[in-house]
Write a structure and sequence with these properties.
This protein is of the alpha+beta class. The chain contains 4 helices and 3 strands, in the order H-H-E-E-E-H-H. Strands 1-2-3 form a 3-stranded antiparallel sheet, with no helix packed on it.
Length: 111
């Protein structure tokens, strides 16, 4: 199968010879495929921030905030009652190990 035939087979619920990895569709086509199959580009992170996938072109994408966790707060009490994250929820060890591994490749810029 060609890569194009593989993607068409998967979209038509037929068995391709192997799993297609990337179909390089334009963002408009990608959105239509996602909507057709009932998928959403929105997600909610553990901190309650709602994101949607925003795309500049077919290669680049970024998460765009749709709604922050305090967007509906109307008073200081609402902010104080928010379930703020706690330092013990996070394990910095994997990040520290990665920083050590790439310490010579790090570039720090200042404006």
């Amino acid at each position: 199968m060609t890569s194009k035939e593989r993607v068409f087979a998967a979209c038509e619920h037929r068995q391709p010879d192997r799993v297609p990895i990337n179909y390089l569709a334009s963002w408009g086509i990608h959105e239509r495929i996602m909507a057709h199959h009932g998928f959403s580009t929105e997600r909610v992170c553990p901190f309650g921030i709602r994101y949607a996938r925003a795309v500049g072109d077919w290669k680049r994408g970024a998460d765009e905030v749709i709604q922050g966790p305090l967007e509906s707060a109307e008073s200081p009490q609402d902010v104080l009652q928010h379930p703020w994250s706690k330092p013990e929820w996070f394990d910095p060890e994997p990040l520290l190990a990665e920083c050590e591994a790439f310490c010579l490749a790090t570039i720090i810029l200042s404006l």
